[in-house]
Structures are given as C-alpha cells and as structure tokens.
Amino acid sequence: MIGHRVLVDGIMGSGKSTFARALAARTGLQVIHLDVHYWNPGWVRPSDDEWRERQQALLAGEAWIIDGNYNETLALRLERADTVVFLDSPWWSCAKRAVVRGLSKPGAEMPEGCEDSVSRRWRDEWGGVGRIWRHRRSELAYARSEISRHGRHTTVHVLRSRREARALLGAICR
Predict the structure, then answer these.
(1) What is the domain count for the chain?
(2) For the chain, N or C: smaller number of CB within 10 Å?
C-alpha cells in the first residue's frame, strides 16, 4: 500500500508536512521537507538548475518521504517515487491553516541561514491564501496530468479529508 519512496503533495495548507511526519512515525522512513531545502541563506531563491540538482541529490536515496508542492519539478519527484499521496483538502480548510500558521510563533524547521519572524511568516502565509484560492481547482488536475505522464508506475492515494488521512495511516503497520 505504501512504498519506500513516498511523495506527499497537495495545495499549500493541505497538511503535507503534518501527514509526512505522521507517515514517517508509522513507517520509519526519513522525511524530506522541500521547503527546508529550497531556500538559500537570506531567503534567496535558487536558480532552476540549482534547485533541480538539489532535489536530485535528495531523491538519490532508496527510502524517503518527500513533501512539498513545487510544481515545476514535480516530474522529477514522480520519476523516483513509488507511492504518491495527494492531499485534496477543501480550499477553505487550507486557507484557514495558512492563516493560523501565519499567526503562530516561529520555530518550525527553517532553511539554513534564513531567519524566521512573525511578520515574515504572516506576510508569506497571508499571500498564500490568495494562491490557495486561485489554484483551488487546478492543483489536483495538474498533479493527475503529471502522474499520468511521469508516475504511471506509482500507487496513488488521493485523500480528501482528515478522516481519509487517518484511515490510510491506520492501515499502515510498522
């Protein structure tokens, strides 16, 4: 049901990191949070080539759970994954999580050399609410298209609620 190279995807605020951590607790697989590896010190974006090379190095292992929604490199992750979990949470739930996350204290795992603050977090998360609204219908369609092109070999789980996520996690034995 769940392989050794698991891609967790979904719109911003869908619960990717939370699900990936829970899945890691059940499987013992290492979690790779793409957001931690994306940024260069000082919140500088990497070049497309640098980002692609960084991901290739992260994906080289034989067992992992990787979470993130960088669509421009989804094919790269799909080619290595054997399992895809797509969190298709309602847009309003994702927006609520983004707002709550924006109001939370800094302290989540951060990229090296990137300082976190409540104001930075709030700005980024509030901007994310607009992205969630704009992409609320297209994210799953895009993921399905990319899976059909680059991930036909994968087992795909589309989870539409916390209850479905809990059921999948509950069905996994260590």
Answers:
(1) 1
(2) C
Backbone angles phi, psi at 114, to 5 degrees: -115, 120
Q: Taking a C-beta distance cutoff of 8 angstroms, is the pair 32, 111 a contact? A: no
CATH classification at residue 99: 3.40.50.300
How many angstroms separate the CA atoms of 111 and 61, rounded? 21
Nearest to 81 by CA among 55, 46, 54: 55
The tokens of 20 are what? 């990936």
The whole domain housing 163 covers 5-171
Selection from 123, 131, 74, 79 nearest residue 102 by Cα: 123
Integer distance in angstroms from the first to the last C-alpha of the chain?
Answer: 12
pTM of whole model > 0.70?
A: yes
* Per-residue model confidence as pLDDT tens digits over 56-111: 999 999 999 999 989 999 999 999 999 999 999 999 999 999 888 888 766 667 88
CA dihedral 77, 71, 120, 65 (to 10 degrees): -20
Give, for 87, the enclosing helix (H) or strand (E).
strand 83-87
Phi and psi at residue 109, to the nearest 5°: -60, 125
Alpha-helical segments (H) within 69-137: 74-80, 91-103, 118-135
